[in-house]
Amino acid sequence: MKHIRIAALILALVMALTACGAPAASVPSDSPAPQATKEPFVGGETVVTGGRDATGMNGVVSSGREEASQLGVEILQAGGNAIDAAVAMGFLLGVCEQQSSGIGGGGFMMIRFAETGEVVFIDFRDESAAAASLDMWTVDENGKVLNDENKIGGKAVAVPGEVKGMLYALDTYGTMSRAEVMAPAIEMAEEGFVVSEITSRDIKDAYGAIIQFPATEKLYLNEMGFPYEPGEILKNPDLANTLRLIAEQGESVFYEGEIAEKIVAAVQATGGCLTMEDMAEYEIHVGEPVHGTYRGYDIYSSNLPSSGGSIILEILNILENFDVPSMDPESAEYFHLLSETFKLGFADRTKYMGDPAYVDVPVSGITSKDYAAELAATIDMEKSQTYEAGDPWPYESASTTHYSIMDAAGNMVAVTKTVDATFASGLVAEGTGILLNDTLFDFSVDPESPNVVAGNKRPLSSMSPTLVLKDGVPFLALGAPGTTRIITGVAQVISKVIDHGMDVQEAIDAIRMHDDFGTLILEDRVTPEVKEQLAAMGHELETGEVWFTFPCVQATMRLEDGTLRGGADPRRDGKAVAF
User: With 0-12 CB in 10 A as exposed, 13-18 as middle and 19+ as buried, what is 318?
Assistant: First the structure.
């Protein structure tokens, strides 16, 4: 039977290579939607670059699925606040975007309250079991974990934080009940959702992991035993029952009750060390975001254990030393500067950053403008270089989804959450419908790394929900999925909006690039002349990657006249909705 499925899968994958993102949907906004256009990419790939934005005066939401964005607006229209909308959207996305996020994972939430101007950072990142250690994996002499033990199955699973994080936000800052905000997710899990081209492709890509676990195979393969095709309906009645229990009983049923028992049983049956004590002892962290400025705009972003906010601020601080607004954003000069700046930031990320409960991280130094000026002076605008980590200590003072929300009152919410890799550990806890994270893969297996795996530790993350204000007034809320490319993607959109005056959708649609350790990865829309110029500067250039491998930024923006704009990324199923 399996060999028949694999043959069919190969055929399906060949057919999928001709596909692109889902066609743009209509935009319920106060202004007509622009016409969708397509731009060519390598290998015949196309991306829809219009029709995903929205404009309104009362509220705007952008997420990776139109169903979630529409729900967020409906919650606001019904009198709920931005936190109510964020929590409702979070649970719904865990149903219709299960491969990327859900209650088997965790994340970060940034909230700005209009009444007080206070900005709060909620860390509900997954945490390793108390018994987690390097000894639980088999690591070869090259530092590679054998048999993907840190990626697939129970040895990859950490305590999920999403349920506790979402319910804390709702109970503390929301106005609606659990039953009200969770009802749409329960209904969708019960009745099913339409599989998009992106979701179908992701199931096919993860097929090898999915067929290793009976509960996962039953959920993500159709009645014929094949991956779901676009347009088919995917139901998850077990998840509906799980969500119903949480709505009725609260977080205790997830962390101490029957759901916890099923999660622990699934993890231990596949080699993991998670226990009921680990589940019961999990706590979220609530504190302050990292804060900096860029050309007069205030930037608030994720604090540790995310590296994202600090490195975004470091990148922007370096760019502030250059006349970026005068540069053509599609020129070799611009891409070269970004490449050098990114490499400097990632060198510091690798050397210094980890869970602050385990290592002392010089966040103030890394985000210092004086330190950034020192780093900027090392950049040669004529040639590519490699960089060692700098020394921020003298400047020190004593796979994922994202969605953004703004309302007319000035409340802002940005949430990035994940199960880590696409389809995570591949493990669905029997009887729950919960796809469990593979967050332990985010740890390093280098014993000298500040991010080395250990018990009760949160691995370093790149998730970067970010809020931007101008003179105390909301301006931009954004973030993205996409591992380390989150950091560079968010920084590029901020720069393009502030430095080049781009509309939020234009900035999201623009050519994206990434460089962390020496390979300049660039979307293939650049001209041959630009590629030649970058190569002449000494860049190792990679332009063959398909467009959807870049982070999918979802953003909302407030214009000077109070108009609210939403931009959504064409690289996946992103869609903004406003009213």
Answer: buried
Q: Read out DSSP for 519-579?
A: EEEE-TTS-HHHHHHHHHTT-EEE--S-GGGS---EEEEE-TTS-EEEE--TTTT-EEEE-
CA-closest candidate to residue 156, choices 433, 418, 437, 422:
437
For strand 519-522 and strand 540-542, is the pairing parallel, antiparallel, or unpaired?
A: parallel
Total-model pTM: 0.88
Active site residue 400: yes
> One of 341, 400, 416, 432 is an active-site residue; which one?
400
Rounded to whole angstroms, the Cα distance separating 418 from 394 reads: 35
Angle (CA) 529-535-539 rounded to 5° is: 135
Cβ(452)–Cβ(375) below 8 Å: no
Looking at beta carbons, which pairs linking 277-281 to residues 24 or more positions away fall under 8 Å? 277/130, 278/127, 278/129, 278/130, 278/159, 278/456, 279/159, 279/254, 279/255, 280/255, 280/256
Strands, DSSP E only, in 119-173?
119-124
Over the range 78-112, which residues count as b (16 or more CB within 10 Å of their CB) and which as e? eebbbbbbbbbbbbbbbbbbbbbbbbbbbbbbbbb
Which tens digits make up the pLDDT trace of 344-372? 999 999 898 888 888 889 899 999 999 99
Contact call for residues 523 and 488 (beta carbons, < 8 A): no
List pLDDT tens digits, range 323-341: 999 999 999 999 999 999 9
Which among 302, 285, 287 is positioned nearest to 477, based on CA atoms? Answer: 302
Token digits of residue 433: 């419908």
- The helix or strand, by DSSP H or E, that contains position 425, with its residue range, turns out to be none
How far apart (Å, rounded) are the C-alpha atoms in residues 222 and 240? 18
* Ramachandran class of 96: left when φ > 0, alpha when ψ lies in -120 to 50, beta otherwise: alpha
More confident residue, 112 or 46: 112
Q: Encoding tokens for residue 402?
A: 């994202």
Reduce the DSSP state of residue 111 to 3 states and report it.
strand
The answer to whether 462 and 446 have CB atoms below 8 angstroms apart is no
